């Protein structure tokens, strides 16, 4: 869909300078965890847009995106000031690195990649499937959601941005039939993650990868 009005349902803090925004799903909206949408807002009379990945398990009634706020940015502070009932415009969904009912999911997430990691793991567990996350960030967010996922049976590793990923990736990449590895993050993280998949005996070329820039 293109330029569909979108109403805010809730806004929740999920860490320092980070929020999860739940929007009321438009009637014809269909998306999978791991896909992303374009949000559009008026900023000082100009139309501004940014892309955010879905972090909810489904989009049946509402869908969630996770936003890391740059206080000096043009768009993030607008989102941080949203309240229930406010409206934006949405287009999408976009992207082909998303959950497709795989029996086991392994998500390697750097920085804002934790958003789709949480969404995919939530959906996999809700479907009765297995989930594992390796999340690398010096200032982790979504810690409550990650703790909930771990309590529900997911394997979760949270490591510092400078830490080597091989050991944690080796712990979660099993090579079992039906296992799907996902990678979400910026380019330098993608390089580290794909190298770790290879070192763990996995196939980096078979991973579903989304590059945030």
UniProtKB/TrEMBL annotation:
Pfam families: FAD_binding_6. GO terms for molecular function: dioxygenase activity. Residues 1-100 form the FAD-binding FR-type domain. SUPFAM superfamilies: Ferredoxin reductase-like, C-terminal NADP-linked domain, Riboflavin synthase domain-like. It comes from the Archaea. Gene3D superfamilies: Translation factors. Keywords: Dioxygenase, Oxidoreductase. PROSITE patterns: FAD_FR. This is 3-phenylpropionate/trans-cinnamate dioxygenase ferredoxin reductase subunit.
